[in-house]
Amino acid sequence: MKNLAQALTLILLLAILSPQASGAGSLVTTATTTELLKQCNEEKTTAEIHNCLPPLLKKTEQQLKEAETKERTDMMALEDASEGSRHVRPVNAFDKAAKAYRYFRDAECRRINTSYGSGNGGGLAELNCLIEMNIKRATQLNHTNQSK
Question: Would you say residue 113 lies in a domain?
Answer without folding.
Answer: yes
